């Protein structure tokens, strides 16, 4: 693989070609985060922000918006919807901002498209209860990352041990990355702005998946499928975040960067929007 191809290749493609890809990937981010911490210590870095200020109250929602927007841009990057040369780059940079990093988004999201609404194999299947969906998603995403590895490379005792080790490197990389943000921004900004904005952005993404797989309307834990939503709150969300709530359109044609713009002449009739509140 040429250097250029290595930089632009999607993690999920590298993951299926190289059984050690994800260990290298996490190892790289662990070292990069450690280097950032070491550099700040060596340079006696003064945090960007000091004691709490009144404007932190405005910075938190602004930061939440940036992090949510970053997640959804990463989503477009996983589908290769930005110019070919920069999908990986943009995905990796924004993945550092939202801490979870690009590879997990990419690998988990491709699995979601393959097995959407399969209770066993979808990495984040839905339940009627939003909060049950949240707790289940947190557990399932890591489990399905393991499963994706076993599906690709075989479920052997050796691979199970290797994946366990890899997961620890992955958690470790996240902790060091958070430490780097903590030192860079300062403790107050980190605790009052960065961390809550990121947690809320994570919840927002889970809510997006929950509502667009019809859990908002479904009365039993069965009637889940990608739907198009475009009224009330969802109308606004579509205008702010690349038409994300047009999720039936997205599952039919993931290569549309904004599935709100559906060209019927080219793509055939669009699936009608279900009303968000179940009229
Ligand atoms: Zn989906
Ligand atoms: Zn998608």
Structural write-up:
The protein has one domain (3-225). 64% of the residues lie in helices and 0% in strands. It is globular, with a radius of gyration of 20 Å. It is an all-alpha fold and 279 residues long. It has helices spanning 3-8, 11-17, 21-42, 56-78, 87-97, 102-114, 130-153, 157-185, 187-212, 233-240, 247-252, 264-267. The longest helix is centred in the middle third of the chain and has 29 residues, at 157-185. Helix 4 (56-78) packs across helix 6 (102-114), helix 7 packs across helix 9 and helix 8 crosses helix 9 (187-212). Bound molecules: zinc ion (2 copies). One zinc ion binds at residues 75, 79, 109, 113, 250, 254.
Main β sheet profile: none
Record field, number of beta strands: 0
Q: Determine the N-to-C terminus distance.
A: 53 Å
Q: Count of DSSP helices? A: 12
**Multimeric status of the protein:** single chain
Small ligands present: zinc ion
- Gyration radius, rounded: 20 Å
- What count of domains describes the coordinates? 1
Strand content: under 5%
Report mean pLDDT, rounded to a whole number.
90
The amount of helix comes to: 55-70%
Can you tell me the overall shape? globular
How do the SSEs run, as a string of H and E? Answer: HHHHHHHHHHHH
Structural class: mainly alpha
Poorly predicted tracts of residues: none
């Amino acid at each position: 693989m040429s250097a250029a191809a290595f930089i632009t290749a999607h993690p999920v493609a590298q993951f299926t070609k190289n059984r050690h890809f994800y260990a290298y990937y996490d190892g790289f981010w662990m070292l990069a985060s450690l280097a950032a911490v070491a550099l700040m210590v060596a340079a006696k870095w003064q945090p960007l922000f000091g004691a709490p200020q009144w404007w932190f109250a405005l910075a938190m929602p602004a930061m939440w918006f940036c992090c949510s927007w970053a997640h959804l841009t990463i989503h477009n990057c996983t589908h290769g919807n930005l110019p070919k040369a920069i999908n990986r780059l943009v995905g990796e940079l924004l993945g550092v901002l939202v801490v979870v990093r690009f590879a997990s988004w990419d690998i988990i999201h491709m699995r979601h498209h393959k097995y959407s609404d399969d209770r066993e194999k979808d990495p984040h299947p839905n339940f009627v209860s939003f909060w049950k969906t949240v707790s289940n998603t947190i557990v399932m995403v890591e489990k399905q990352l393991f499963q994706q590895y076993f599906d690709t490379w075989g479920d052997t005792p050796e691979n199970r041990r290797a994946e366990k080790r890899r997961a620890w490197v992955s958690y470790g990389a996240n902790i060091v990355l958070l430490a780097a943000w903590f030192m860079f921004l300062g403790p107050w900004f980190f605790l009052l702005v960065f961390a809550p904005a990121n947690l809320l952005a994570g919840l927002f993404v889970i809510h997006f998946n929950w509502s667009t797989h019809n859990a908002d309307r479904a009365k039993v834990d069965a009637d889940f499928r990608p739907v198009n939503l475009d009224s009330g709150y969802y109308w606004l969300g579509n205008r702010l975040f690349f038409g994300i709530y047009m999720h039936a359109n997205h599952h039919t044609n993931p290569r549309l960067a904004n599935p709100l713009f559906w060209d019927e002449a080219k793509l055939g009739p669009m699936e009608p929007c279900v009303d968000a509140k179940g009229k």
